[in-house]
Design goal:
73 residues; 77% helix
């Protein structure tokens, strides 16, 4: 596995953990929520930009996106 892929995987794991913490839910719930409301797709598509922001900013971005996609957190 290339370093870029491993970096991206580590970023997603950290983001899911930060999202869970910000919303007071478990990491499993955070993963399912982000998967169901396309937050993971959003971060994957815009990874080149999103990973340059702080996790706080990215959590805000992905939270807003999930809300537009029907999420309630």
């Amino acid at each position: 596995m290339s370093k870029n892929v491993l970096d991206k995987i580590n970023y997603f794991v950290a983001l899911i953990t930060e999202f869970a913490s910000a919303h007071g839910i478990s990491t499993q719930q955070a993963y399912r929520y982000l998967r169901d409301y396309k937050g993971l797709d959003f971060v994957d598509k815009y990874y080149d930009v999103e990973h340059t922001f702080s996790f706080e900013n990215t959590v805000e971005d992905v939270s807003a996106y999930c809300k537009r996609m029907g999420g309630t957190l």
